[in-house]
Structure formats: structure tokens, C-alpha cells
Model the fold of this input.
Amino acid sequence: MIKVIECPRDAMQGIKKYFIDTDTKVKYINKLLKVGFHTIDFGSFVSPKVIPQMRDTATVLSKLDLGGSNSKLLTIVVNERGAKEACQFDQIDYLGYPFSISETFQLRNTNATISESLKRLCAIQEIAMKTGKELVVYVSMGFGNPYGDEWNVEIVQKWVDLLADSGIKILSLSDTIGVATRETIEYLFTNLIPPYPDVEFGAHFHTRPDEWREKVDAAFKNGCRRFDGAIKGYGGCPMAKDDLTGNMPTEKLLSFFPEHDIDLGLDIQVFAEAMAMSSSVFPLH
Done:
């Protein structure tokens, strides 16, 4: 089964020129909930000083129409405080935690070293287990980094081994700056997936418009069945240093799998409506 995770949070969070008003977010996410995605990555419980665009996540959640939707909800947390806040809400199914294997990016992203991040992750994992939430760990900078920090596939393997052995059941490899190649994708998924049959591996790709297919194809052919996307590729990491590098466009994912005779079970008409709506949600893109 292919799981498609739609990530409006990732599309919105980096916007600093304007604030997307709460009602607009609610209407957009409610439309996405009707498409039939496995999961909606809808918000984050982080400091509003760091991510002001997500300061209304709790309010957005209170206004979502979850009746009739089978989609699960995921929110990002980066510390115990955020995890405790998120776990107060029964509607939330998953806590997502960005674990960077780049020391520099971990410090920039969560104000913690990798060692400190591991301690945070253990505490968050305990909170999640006590409240019936599942933890999704994003292995960010999983395909390289722009800081000169050492990166190779053995380093990725080391951290995946540690995370899997600590009981993490969902690991999403994140191509944070859009540098993954077919070769590195093939190598990583081929070597990471077989030793851990009880761990679900996902792909959170950032990509240029002309490179999306080879990334999805390489991951799919080597066992990945969980894919993150954002309509029209909105968002992505500002540190990619390439204006053309955004999130994996969801519409590309939806075109890829039917080519392989895979029915995603999504309502394509409602998805088209969400695509049309996105232009008003992201008017300056």
C-alpha cells in the first residue's frame, strides 16, 4: 500500500511576508481532509517566535471538520513542551520530530546538538507512548548538507540503526536541500529497509521540477511506500539555495503511481478543487 502524506504545514511554515489567516488555513486543510490522503501534516507546536506562521495550530485544529475523513493528523514538535501540548489533543495521531544528522542543521533547526536532540527524542517518545500517539522521525539532511559537515551513506546507516533499535517505527529520509540522486536513493533504501521489516521507511523529498520523477522512481523501486508531498511543490527548505527547489509536488506523486497500475484511492475531483484553492492560500507564490 502506498501512503501519500500531504504537508500543508511544510508549505506554509517558511512564509514570512504575510500571515495566512486562520480561517483560510482551516478551509484549505478541511478540503485536503476530503481527498483521502493517509495523513495530513497540518501544523506544529513550536515557539511562535521561531515559526510565527504556525502560531495558530491549536486554533486551526479546533476548527477542522474530521467527520467522514479517514486521514490521520500529524504535527511537528521539537521539544518536550511542544510534545506535551500536542498530546493534549485527541485528534492528533502522529508527532513528527526532525532529527538532523548534520550537527550544524540540528543546531539551526532545533537549537540543540545531535546529542541533546537524542535526549529530547527519547523524552518525546515516552510522552507519545503514554498518550497513544505514534512518532514519525524525519532524518533530515539524510542525503547531504550544505555546511561542510561530513556526510556519507555509512553515517546515515549509523543513525538509522540507532533510531530503529530505540523503537522508532516510522523513519522518513528527508532530502532537505534537494541534493539526493538516484544512486544515493537506491543505495540507502536498498540497504536500510531489509534489516528492519517492522520499520516503515518514508521519503520526504525536496526537488527541482525536472528531477522529481527520478527521485520517486528510485525510492519506489527500492521499497519505499510512504511519500510526502505538498500541492504545487509549495514550501521547501530556504537553505536549499535554489529558488526552484521546493517540496515534492503532490500532483506529481498522484500522476506517478497510476502509471504503475496503483490506485491510491483518492478523490481526484476534490484534489483538483484543493489545487485550485491553493492559489488563494499562497497568493505570492
